[in-house]
Amino acid sequence: MKATKVKNLTDHLAGVVAVTDSQIRILNEALLPAKMDGLAYSAVFSAGLVRDTARWLIWEIAQAVGIFPASIHEIYMAVGRGDLPANFTVPAINVRAANYYTSRAVFRAANALRVGAFIFEIARSEMGYTEQRPAEYVACVLAAAVREGFRGPVFIQGDHFQISAKNFAANRDKEVQAVKDLMAEAVAAGFYNIDIDTSTLVDLSPQTLDEQQRLNYAVCAELTQYARQIEPEGITISLGGEIGEVGGHNSTPAELRAFMDGYLRVLPAGVAGISKISVQTGTSHGGVVLPDGTLADVKVDFDTLRELSHLARAEYGTGGAVQHGASTLPASAFNKFPQIGTIEIHLATNFQNMFFDHAPQYFIDTAYNYVLSNLKNEWKSGQTEEQFLYSARKKAIGPLKQMMWDLDAADMSRIEQALEEQFAFLFRQLGVYNTQAMIRQWTTRVVVSHLRPTESVAEEELAMADDLAD
Hints:
Blueprint: H1 6-12, E1 17-20, E2 23-26, H2 32-45, H3 48-65, E3 67-70, H4 73-81, E4 90-94, H5 99-113, E5 119-123, H6 124-130, H7 134-147, E6 152-162, H8 165-170, H9 172-189, E7 193-197, H10 209-230, E8 238-242, H11 253-266, E9 276-279, H12 302-316, E10 321-323, H13 336-339, E11 344-347, H14 349-358, H15 361-374, H16 385-392, H17 401-405, H18 409-429, H19 436-442
Parallel strand pairs: 3-6, 4-5, 4-11, 5-6, 6-7, 7-8, 8-9, 9-10, 10-11
Antiparallel strand pairs: 1-2
């Protein structure tokens, strides 16, 4: 269903949800799941006030049945204090393609294994090329939760809310403000977890590590203070910092200490700081693509990751270190992350790859034709066509979003099944099965109600740059 009038939405919910002004009342919870497909579709593809009302309805329905966006800050800090064991690694899942359907697969796997410790996330760069602003992203995730009968906290995260080094050099204040504006938009939509990425500002030319990390920790502290100003009452947004760009040299204990010591020195007393820190241990976003389009084997420096996670907990009381760029690692690697105390792992590219691997051929042909027709200027010298298509096809996701959602039911079911199996595998390997009770115990529920929209608010253009990471 693609609603064209607000009345279409209320008629769609008749007998299931009563809507009076800015209040909703659940009349028949058992019938709610069947109503989510139409609401989610309208939340993405309807226009103006109809779209915004669908998003509002999804938010309020989720709250009413016990599904609520939450911060994972309390969990991570409990791990940092030793109140919870550091024997699980929280998967942070970047949902790029067909959000509602992918998220449904996540929730089905989570329900089957009683998983509570998992995160949905999207990076600043991904919002651009997948055409998913925060309000749309949250609506899809929450609608999927209702559709699959999930209950409890849902952790939604801004991944790589990153400072563009190029834009920062041209106009510092403008680029910092662009990230602040994105943070404000995201928090208002229900992102209560944000990874601040100012690692792009690390300068390796000075002699001391403090000087190398100075801009990184100073701007991270500035953005931390801003997050504390805009977070909803009763919620401490979980924030992450980063000490080195993914794909660069491996991080060291001395670099972590230089960042954290400087960060804590400039952060005002009484302001809650970061709860985790991202480090580089040998991976790269999207993997390394060989000339034939396959991925090269990647080795994670597990010894470094173990050392940095322990240091982050023992000396700074955070949850530990975060592993980025990991979804294309071999299957045998994932059970090692909880064994060495990695607090969080970011997974993106392989889920996108699975979508392309299982999608019907006509969709693949359309996506590749789009890339070859519109993105040839991004074809780097020395790249084979296979390498170019692999690296660029993600940028067809936004332009072909409705085509993805409109795939034949059998095709979408095949994709969802493959994704669900992969999510279940990762949940087991990362040690987050049977964590629902623990997560609910350690997460404070804060009910956040929104006023029903009375007019559509146009979204300003998302400030982007060509040097942002996924």
